[in-house]
Fold these 3 entries.
Entry 1:
Amino acid sequence: MNGPDTRDKRGFVGWLRSVPANIWVALVIAAIALIFVLQNRQKATIELFNISMSAPLWMTLLVTLLIGLVIGLLIRRNRRTGQRPR
Protein backbone atom coordinates (compact mmCIF):
# COMPACT_ATOMS: atom_id res chain seq x y z
CA MET A 1 0.00 0.00 0.00
CA ASN A 2 1.28 3.45 -0.82
CA GLY A 3 1.76 5.48 2.33
CA PRO A 4 3.67 8.60 3.26
CA ASP A 5 6.86 6.53 3.70
CA THR A 6 7.02 5.63 -0.02
CA ARG A 7 7.85 9.18 -1.10
CA ASP A 8 11.22 10.03 -2.61
CA LYS A 9 13.66 10.41 0.29
CA ARG A 10 16.18 12.66 -1.47
CA GLY A 11 15.26 15.52 0.82
CA PHE A 12 15.20 19.20 0.19
CA VAL A 13 18.71 19.42 -1.27
CA GLY A 14 17.94 16.63 -3.71
CA TRP A 15 14.77 18.40 -4.71
CA LEU A 16 16.69 21.65 -5.30
CA ARG A 17 19.15 19.81 -7.54
CA SER A 18 16.32 18.29 -9.56
CA VAL A 19 14.94 21.72 -10.56
CA PRO A 20 15.94 22.44 -14.19
CA ALA A 21 18.41 25.25 -14.91
CA ASN A 22 15.88 27.23 -16.97
CA ILE A 23 13.60 27.43 -13.92
CA TRP A 24 16.49 28.80 -11.82
CA VAL A 25 17.26 31.40 -14.49
CA ALA A 26 13.58 32.40 -14.62
CA LEU A 27 13.46 32.75 -10.82
CA VAL A 28 16.60 34.92 -10.78
CA ILE A 29 15.20 37.17 -13.53
CA ALA A 30 11.88 37.43 -11.68
CA ALA A 31 13.69 38.39 -8.45
CA ILE A 32 15.72 41.06 -10.28
CA ALA A 33 12.54 42.39 -11.91
CA LEU A 34 10.81 42.58 -8.51
CA ILE A 35 13.76 44.48 -7.01
CA PHE A 36 13.73 46.82 -10.03
CA VAL A 37 10.01 47.55 -9.58
CA LEU A 38 10.38 48.17 -5.84
CA GLN A 39 13.28 50.58 -6.38
CA ASN A 40 11.60 52.55 -9.20
CA ARG A 41 8.17 53.42 -7.83
CA GLN A 42 8.47 57.20 -8.23
CA LYS A 43 6.29 58.96 -10.81
CA ALA A 44 7.60 59.91 -14.23
CA THR A 45 5.96 62.33 -16.63
CA ILE A 46 5.84 61.32 -20.27
CA GLU A 47 5.08 63.84 -23.00
CA LEU A 48 4.32 62.88 -26.59
CA PHE A 49 3.28 65.66 -28.94
CA ASN A 50 0.81 67.61 -26.81
CA ILE A 51 -0.24 64.74 -24.54
CA SER A 52 1.20 64.53 -21.05
CA MET A 53 0.85 61.47 -18.83
CA SER A 54 2.17 60.48 -15.43
CA ALA A 55 2.99 56.87 -14.51
CA PRO A 56 5.40 54.96 -12.27
CA LEU A 57 8.92 54.83 -13.71
CA TRP A 58 8.97 51.03 -13.79
CA MET A 59 5.77 50.95 -15.85
CA THR A 60 7.15 53.54 -18.25
CA LEU A 61 10.31 51.49 -18.79
CA LEU A 62 8.29 48.28 -19.19
CA VAL A 63 6.08 49.84 -21.88
CA THR A 64 9.19 51.17 -23.65
CA LEU A 65 10.74 47.69 -23.52
CA LEU A 66 7.58 46.10 -24.96
CA ILE A 67 7.42 48.67 -27.77
CA GLY A 68 11.05 47.93 -28.62
CA LEU A 69 10.34 44.19 -28.56
CA VAL A 70 7.42 44.59 -30.97
CA ILE A 71 9.54 46.74 -33.32
CA GLY A 72 12.35 44.16 -33.21
CA LEU A 73 9.96 41.30 -33.96
CA LEU A 74 8.43 43.20 -36.88
CA ILE A 75 11.85 43.96 -38.37
CA ARG A 76 12.98 40.37 -37.87
CA ARG A 77 9.86 39.00 -39.54
CA ASN A 78 10.26 41.37 -42.49
CA ARG A 79 13.87 40.25 -42.95
CA ARG A 80 12.82 36.60 -42.97
CA THR A 81 10.04 37.10 -45.51
CA GLY A 82 12.30 39.25 -47.70
CA GLN A 83 14.87 36.49 -48.14
CA ARG A 84 14.80 34.40 -51.29
CA PRO A 85 14.46 30.64 -50.98
CA ARG A 86 17.60 28.69 -51.88
Note: The beta strands are 43-48, 51-56.
Entry 2:
Amino acid sequence: MECQKEKNRQRCPCTYEPCPRKGICCECLRYHLKMRQLPGCCFHEAGERTYDRSFEHFARLVQAGEV
Protein backbone atom coordinates (compact mmCIF):
# COMPACT_ATOMS: atom_id res chain seq x y z
CA MET A 1 0.00 0.00 0.00
CA GLU A 2 1.37 3.40 -0.96
CA CYS A 3 1.41 6.31 1.45
CA GLN A 4 -1.33 8.86 0.76
CA LYS A 5 0.91 11.68 2.02
CA GLU A 6 -0.91 14.59 0.36
CA LYS A 7 -4.35 13.28 1.33
CA ASN A 8 -3.13 12.68 4.90
CA ARG A 9 -1.57 16.16 5.01
CA GLN A 10 -4.93 17.76 4.20
CA ARG A 11 -6.57 16.04 7.17
CA CYS A 12 -3.66 16.30 9.62
CA PRO A 13 -4.62 18.49 12.60
CA CYS A 14 -1.02 18.91 13.79
CA THR A 15 -0.16 22.60 14.15
CA TYR A 16 3.60 22.08 14.31
CA GLU A 17 4.36 23.32 10.80
CA PRO A 18 8.04 22.47 10.41
CA CYS A 19 7.25 18.80 11.17
CA PRO A 20 8.99 16.57 8.61
CA ARG A 21 6.53 13.72 9.32
CA LYS A 22 3.34 15.67 8.52
CA GLY A 23 1.21 13.48 6.28
CA ILE A 24 3.35 10.38 6.85
CA CYS A 25 1.23 8.84 9.59
CA CYS A 26 3.25 5.66 10.10
CA GLU A 27 6.45 7.68 10.70
CA CYS A 28 4.61 10.14 12.94
CA LEU A 29 3.11 7.39 15.07
CA ARG A 30 6.43 5.54 15.32
CA TYR A 31 8.24 8.74 16.36
CA HIS A 32 5.74 9.76 19.02
CA LEU A 33 5.33 6.30 20.54
CA LYS A 34 9.12 6.04 20.83
CA MET A 35 9.03 9.35 22.73
CA ARG A 36 6.21 8.04 24.99
CA GLN A 37 3.73 10.38 23.34
CA LEU A 38 0.67 10.31 21.13
CA PRO A 39 0.55 12.19 17.83
CA GLY A 40 -1.38 15.45 17.59
CA CYS A 41 -4.28 13.76 15.79
CA CYS A 42 -5.23 12.01 19.04
CA PHE A 43 -6.08 15.34 20.70
CA HIS A 44 -8.82 17.87 20.18
CA GLU A 45 -7.71 21.28 18.89
CA ALA A 46 -7.06 22.97 22.25
CA GLY A 47 -5.24 19.94 23.63
CA GLU A 48 -3.09 19.62 20.53
CA ARG A 49 -2.05 23.28 20.60
CA THR A 50 -0.35 22.80 23.97
CA TYR A 51 2.25 20.61 22.19
CA ASP A 52 2.13 18.37 25.29
CA ARG A 53 1.60 15.03 23.62
CA SER A 54 2.48 12.92 26.65
CA PHE A 55 0.38 9.94 27.69
CA GLU A 56 -0.15 11.69 31.02
CA HIS A 57 -1.58 14.81 29.38
CA PHE A 58 -3.91 12.66 27.29
CA ALA A 59 -5.05 10.78 30.42
CA ARG A 60 -5.77 14.09 32.20
CA LEU A 61 -7.87 15.26 29.25
CA VAL A 62 -9.79 11.96 29.22
CA GLN A 63 -10.45 12.18 32.98
CA ALA A 64 -11.69 15.77 32.55
CA GLY A 65 -13.96 14.65 29.71
CA GLU A 66 -12.15 16.84 27.21
CA VAL A 67 -11.34 14.14 24.64
Note: The radius of gyration is 12 Å.
Entry 3:
Amino acid sequence: MVNRLEQAADLIRATGLDSLRIGIDSYHMNIEETDPAAAILAHADLIGHAQVSDSNRFQPGAGHLDWPAWLGALHTIGYDGYLAAECRLTGEPLEAVRSIPAFLRGSGA
Protein backbone atom coordinates (compact mmCIF):
# COMPACT_ATOMS: atom_id res chain seq x y z
CA MET A 1 0.00 0.00 0.00
CA VAL A 2 1.28 3.44 -0.91
CA ASN A 3 -0.14 6.12 1.38
CA ARG A 4 2.40 8.94 1.46
CA LEU A 5 4.36 10.82 -1.18
CA GLU A 6 7.63 9.51 0.23
CA GLN A 7 6.47 5.93 -0.36
CA ALA A 8 5.36 6.74 -3.91
CA ALA A 9 8.66 8.49 -4.64
CA ASP A 10 10.65 5.53 -3.31
CA LEU A 11 8.63 3.15 -5.46
CA ILE A 12 9.09 5.26 -8.59
CA ARG A 13 12.82 5.62 -7.99
CA ALA A 14 13.12 1.86 -7.44
CA THR A 15 11.62 1.20 -10.88
CA GLY A 16 14.15 3.45 -12.60
CA LEU A 17 11.45 4.64 -15.01
CA ASP A 18 11.57 8.37 -15.76
CA SER A 19 8.05 8.23 -17.19
CA LEU A 20 6.30 7.58 -13.84
CA ARG A 21 4.84 10.46 -11.82
CA ILE A 22 2.84 10.87 -8.63
CA GLY A 23 -0.79 11.95 -8.67
CA ILE A 24 -1.30 13.89 -5.45
CA ASP A 25 -4.68 14.22 -3.75
CA SER A 26 -5.35 16.95 -1.17
CA TYR A 27 -7.98 14.91 0.70
CA HIS A 28 -5.76 11.87 1.19
CA MET A 29 -2.67 13.95 1.90
CA ASN A 30 -4.62 15.69 4.67
CA ILE A 31 -5.10 12.27 6.27
CA GLU A 32 -1.75 10.58 5.59
CA GLU A 33 0.89 13.33 5.54
CA THR A 34 2.19 15.03 8.68
CA ASP A 35 2.86 18.16 6.60
CA PRO A 36 1.27 18.02 3.13
CA ALA A 37 3.02 21.16 1.87
CA ALA A 38 6.42 19.86 2.97
CA ALA A 39 5.73 16.55 1.21
CA ILE A 40 4.95 18.42 -2.02
CA LEU A 41 8.19 20.38 -1.73
CA ALA A 42 10.23 17.26 -0.94
CA HIS A 43 8.97 15.31 -3.96
CA ALA A 44 8.44 18.12 -6.47
CA ASP A 45 10.40 16.38 -9.19
CA LEU A 46 7.94 13.48 -9.29
CA ILE A 47 4.55 15.25 -9.09
CA GLY A 48 2.60 14.94 -12.30
CA HIS A 49 -1.06 15.52 -11.40
CA ALA A 50 -3.08 17.10 -8.58
CA GLN A 51 -6.60 16.37 -7.37
CA VAL A 52 -8.39 18.69 -4.98
CA SER A 53 -11.09 18.21 -2.39
CA ASP A 54 -11.31 19.55 1.13
CA SER A 55 -10.75 17.75 4.43
CA ASN A 56 -14.33 16.45 4.37
CA ARG A 57 -14.13 15.41 0.69
CA PHE A 58 -16.45 18.26 -0.31
CA GLN A 59 -15.40 21.01 -2.70
CA PRO A 60 -12.40 23.15 -1.73
CA GLY A 61 -13.47 25.72 0.83
CA ALA A 62 -16.05 23.51 2.54
CA GLY A 63 -13.65 22.04 5.11
CA HIS A 64 -10.53 23.00 7.02
CA LEU A 65 -7.63 22.07 4.74
CA ASP A 66 -4.77 24.62 4.75
CA TRP A 67 -5.19 25.69 1.13
CA PRO A 68 -2.69 28.58 1.18
CA ALA A 69 0.04 26.14 2.32
CA TRP A 70 -0.98 23.35 -0.10
CA LEU A 71 -1.39 25.60 -3.13
CA GLY A 72 1.62 27.68 -2.11
CA ALA A 73 3.76 24.54 -2.20
CA LEU A 74 2.49 23.74 -5.71
CA HIS A 75 3.28 27.31 -6.76
CA THR A 76 6.76 27.10 -5.23
CA ILE A 77 7.62 23.94 -7.20
CA GLY A 78 6.34 25.50 -10.42
CA TYR A 79 3.46 23.06 -10.89
CA ASP A 80 1.53 24.25 -13.94
CA GLY A 81 -0.78 21.29 -14.46
CA TYR A 82 -4.49 21.05 -13.88
CA LEU A 83 -6.15 20.91 -10.48
CA ALA A 84 -8.79 18.22 -10.94
CA ALA A 85 -11.77 18.57 -8.59
CA GLU A 86 -12.48 15.10 -7.22
CA CYS A 87 -15.05 15.89 -4.58
CA ARG A 88 -18.60 15.66 -3.40
CA LEU A 89 -20.60 18.86 -3.35
CA THR A 90 -22.29 20.63 -0.49
CA GLY A 91 -24.95 23.24 -1.08
CA GLU A 92 -26.60 23.92 -4.42
CA PRO A 93 -24.57 21.84 -6.93
CA LEU A 94 -24.12 24.46 -9.66
CA GLU A 95 -23.07 27.12 -7.16
CA ALA A 96 -20.74 24.66 -5.45
CA VAL A 97 -18.99 23.79 -8.73
CA ARG A 98 -18.75 27.44 -9.73
CA SER A 99 -17.22 28.34 -6.36
CA ILE A 100 -14.19 26.10 -6.81
CA PRO A 101 -12.03 28.15 -9.24
CA ALA A 102 -12.60 31.42 -7.37
CA PHE A 103 -11.88 29.81 -4.02
CA LEU A 104 -8.66 28.21 -5.25
CA ARG A 105 -7.48 31.45 -6.90
CA GLY A 106 -8.17 33.31 -3.66
CA SER A 107 -6.21 30.71 -1.72
CA GLY A 108 -3.10 30.85 -3.83
CA ALA A 109 -3.73 28.87 -7.03
Note: The two ends are 30 Å apart (CA to CA).
